[in-house]
């Protein structure tokens, strides 16, 4: 991996490029500083920094760019200038489609020296040793830029692979959620279809009157006799017998022959119960 490290600053912007991979010796490609005049206007200084970084990108052709992450300082004016220069470096890399990594000073110190509180002299000494240089890079901004590049070579690859793995996991989770949502939607549609089938299987009484046929409405208007045909026939014969026998019964009760009875037929008189008929008193003899 070929990495260009940028230590942002308005007056001196350190730039350094190294090539290598984790666990293998590193190679120095180039190191330097982009300078601007302190008496120039801010816009002109930013334009000069942009032009210098663009030249370095053309010459080195890095695979990635590592920029120091700006953190708060007591000197607000200094931190503002550093942030503006860092923005120019990020812009130049993004314009070319290069990946940009931001590393804090503590992260760089810990990666190079093993301590997050190391000073610039310790950092310069370790950079000289790691790159097998004869002397320490000057000024300190150039050494810091090389330290940024080395830090990204050692940690940037692992961080990039971790970011790719996390992105892949996020895509897998999103696709599985989408598949689950589609399955749930299919189940809902199936439930609605089943409900529609059950509704269609209801009895004719559950349907609206408009949907019934005229024959069905006519049959419903009739008053059907729920009794069996045999029971209806027996009741009809009993009614006829009762009607035809009524005059005979009346005549029998009155002591006269019924209409249509033969003339020689004896007439049956009702005889009162002797127990209920009072006895006549004996007649008295009134003969003198």
Which tags fit this structure?
288 residues; alpha/beta; 5-stranded mixed β-sheet; Crossover junction endodeoxyribonuclease RuvC; endonuclease; metal-binding; DNA-binding; hydrolase
Distance between the termini: 179 Å
The best one-word shape is elongated
Q: What is the total tally of β strands? A: 5
Q: What structural category characterises the helix and strand content?
A: alpha/beta
- Order of strands side by side in the largest beta sheet? 3-2-1-4-5
CATH fold annotation of one domain: Nucleotidyltransferase, domain 5
**Low-confidence blocks of residues:** 242-248, 250-277
- Top-tier CATH class of one domain: Alpha Beta
Rounded mean pLDDT score: 76
Strand fraction: 5-15%
Describe what you observe in this structure.
The protein has helices at 42-60, 76-95, 105-113, 120-131, 140-200, 214-221, 229-244, 246-254; strands at 2-7, 12-19, 27-35, 64-68, 100-103. The chain has a five-stranded mixed sheet, with helices on both faces. Helix 1 (42-60) packs across helix 2 (76-95), helix 3 packs across helix 5 (140-200) and helix 4 (120-131) crosses helix 5 (140-200). The longest helix is centred in the middle third of the chain and has 61 residues, at 140-200. It has a domain at 2-171: Nucleotidyltransferase, domain 5, CATH 3.30.420.10. The protein is 53% helix and 11% strand. Strand 2 (12-19) and strand 3 form a beta hairpin. By secondary structure, it is α/β, with parallel strands linked by helices. It contains eight helices and five strands; from the N terminus they run E-E-E-H-E-H-E-H-H-H-H-H-H. It holds the Pfam family RuvC. Belongs to the RuvC family. Residues 172-197, 246-268 have a biased composition (Low complexity). InterPro entries: RNaseH-like_sf, RNaseH_sf, X-over_junc_endoDNase_Mg_BS, X-over_junc_endoDNase_RuvC.
């Amino acid at each position: 991996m070929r990495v260009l490290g940028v230590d942002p600053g308005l007056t001196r912007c350190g730039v350094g490029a190294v090539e290598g991979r984790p666990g293998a010796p590193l190679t120095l490609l180039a190191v330097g500083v982009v300078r601007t005049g302190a008496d120039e206007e801010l816009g002109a200084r930013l334009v000069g920094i942009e032009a210098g970084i663009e030249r370095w990108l053309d010459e080195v052709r890095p695979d990635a760019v590592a920029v120091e992450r700006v953190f708060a300082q007591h000197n607000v004016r200094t931190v503002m200038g550093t942030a503006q220069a860092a923005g120019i470096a990020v812009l130049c890399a993004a314009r070319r489609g290069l990946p940009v990594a931001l590393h804090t000073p503590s992260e760089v110190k810990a990666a190079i020296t093993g301590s997050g509180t190391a000073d610039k002299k310790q950092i310069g000494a370790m950079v000289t040793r790691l790159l097998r240089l004869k002397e320490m890079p000057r000024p300190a901004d150039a050494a810091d830029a090389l330290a940024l590049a080395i830090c990204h070579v050692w940690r940037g690859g692992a961080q990039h692979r971790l970011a790719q793995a996390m992105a892949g996991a996020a895509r897998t989770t999103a696709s599985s959620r989408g598949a689950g949502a589609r399955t749930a939607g299919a189940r809902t549609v199936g439930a609605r279809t089943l409900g529609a089938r059950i509704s269609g299987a209801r009895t004719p009484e559950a349907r609206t009157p408009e949907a019934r046929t005229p024959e069905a409405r006519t049959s419903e208007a009739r008053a059907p006799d729920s009794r069996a045909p045999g029971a209806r026939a027996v009741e009809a014969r009993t009614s006829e017998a009762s009607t035809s026998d009524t005059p005979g019964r009346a005549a029998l009760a009155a002591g006269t022959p019924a209409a249509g009875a033969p003339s020689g037929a004896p007439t049956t008189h009702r005889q009162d119960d002797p127990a209920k008929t009072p006895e006549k008193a004996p007649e008295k003899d009134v003969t003198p």
